[in-house]
Structure formats: C-alpha cells, structure tokens
Design goal:
The structure holds 2 protein chains of 2 kinds. Chain A is mainly beta. Chain A has strands at residues 4-7, 10-13, 19-25, 33-38, 45-49, 53-54, 62-67, 70-75, 85-90, 103-107. The N and C termini of chain A lie far apart (35 Å). Chain B has strands at residues 3-7, 10-12, 18-25, 34-39, 45-51, 58-60, 68-73, 78-83, 92-99, 109-112, 116-120. The relative contact order of chain B is 0.31. The chains are: A mainly beta, B mainly beta. The A-B interface holds A 1, 32, 34, 36, 38, 42-46, 49, 55, 87, 89, 91-92, 94-102 and B 35, 44-47, 50, 59-62, 95, 100, 104-115.
C-alpha cells in the first residue's frame, strides 16, 4: 500500500499571502495525484487532478505541480474561503487509493 | 448537476449489520465507477471500497475486506454498501463518490455526496 504523507499538518498564513502544501508518496504514483478541499461539515471537493489540472470551476489561484513522489499545491493569494483542510490522494497503484492525512490551512 | 444522496446510516451495536445506499442523479450512472470513502470524527479520509461501472469488479480496503460488500443496481441508479460484523472503529461518516471513468483502476473521485453517519456502539 502506498503511504501518502502531507506536510505541514497545520499551516498558518495571512489572507492575501501564498500557501504551499506538500504531499509525498512512498513510491512513484506518476502524475495520478488529486487534491481535495474540505470545509468543516462539508464533503470534500475536487480541486486538482493529474497533479496539475484544475477541476471545473476551481479558481486560477490554485495550482498543482509535481510527479513521481513529490507534489505541491500552491494557493497564490489566499482568500477567506480558502481556509480549510486539504487532502492529496493517489489513484495510481491498485486500490486502496490512499489519502494523505491532510493539511489544515488556518488564518494567521 | 451530479447529485449523490446517501442514506441508511445510524446507530448499530458491535457485531451488527447496516446497509448504506446512495441514490445517484445528474449523470449516466451506468457509465461510471463508484467509491465509498469514510471519515471518522476529526480524522482524515479513508478509501473503503470501489466498484466498476458494470458491477463485475469490486475492491476493498484491508480494514473492511470480508465484512463489507459493495454492489450497485444500475436499473435504479443506486449504489450500496452492505456492512456486516461492524466494529467500533467503523464509526465514521460514509461518503458515496463518483469516479471519472467506468473502471476504478486509474480513475479519480470527481464528485462526493454529503455523507451519512454510522455509529457503532453498545
């Protein structure tokens, strides 16, 4: 089973600043990596897939990069609605398609 | 608009059974694989089970293998998760999710339901 490790566990950033979230896979997942945003009491929402493709309706301030074992989600200028939990998930290796443990993005 | 509406959650005793259902609409259900993901309170997301569009291929996390069964009724656009021999550690919100392809393999989750809470406790 591939282990996905996200860092940091909590990231404190001021509105308008840039946030950089990391996700590392225990073995290569090529570009088969998705990012999800989850707000308290809500279901997750797909943000990025194939490591760098924004999902429909996702603002351009969200961007993904990376391949293999190292991935980054960047939010270029944080808006109030961006403070949430973020999860990466690999869908490369046979199920289970494992998630990272999540990063909490909070207001500084 | 894709809609996924879960039902069937509730309180059950350890060792008991529960069947979750997910009514799908807004897309051609028979063309897409489906997935169940769960989330314990205050915890992260855990992939539980997936099924291909035709229902012939199913996949399970080791933590539920042999106890849970995923199946679908394509004539009724409904996904199910039969959960037997439930344990306290199965307590979680269970999300029904749509994949972006007809097969689970190499497909991602692109839409989620709002979830249904399962509590396993005596």
């Amino acid at each position: 089973e591939i282990v996905m490790t996200q860092s940091p566990a909590t990231l404190s950033v001021s509105p308008g600043e840039r946030a950089t979230l990391s996700c590392r896979a225990s073995q290569s997942v090529r570009s088969n990596l998705a990012w999800y945003q989850q707000k308290p009491g809500q279901a997750p929402r797909l943000l990025v897939y194939h490591a760098s493709t924004r999902a429909t309706g996702v603002p351009t301030r969200f961007s993904g990069s990376g391949s293999g074992t190292e991935f980054i989600l960047t939010i270029s200028s944080l808006q109030s609605e961006d403070f949430a939990f973020y999860y990466c998930q690999q869908y490369d290796n046979w199920p289970p398609y494992t998630f990272g443990q999540g990063t909490k993005l909070e207001i500084k | 608009e894709v809609q996924l509406l879960e039902s069937g959650g509730g309180l059950v005793q350890p060792g008991g059974s529960l069947r979750l259902s997910c009514a799908a609409s807004g897309f051609t259900f028979t063309n897409f694989a489906m997935t169940w993901v769960r989330q314990a309170t205050g915890k992260g997301l855990e992939w539980v089970s997936g099924i291909d569009a035709n229902g012939f291929s199913t996949y399970y996390a080791d933590s539920v293998k042999g106890r849970f069964t995923i199946y679908r009724d394509n004539s009724k656009n409904t996904l199910h998760l039969q959960m037997n021999s439930l344990r306290a550690e199965d307590t979680a919100v269970y999300y029904c999710a749509k994949n972006d392809d007809h097969m689970i393999v190499l497909s991602l989750i692109d839409h989620w339901g709002q979830g249904t809470l399962v509590t396993v406790s005596s």
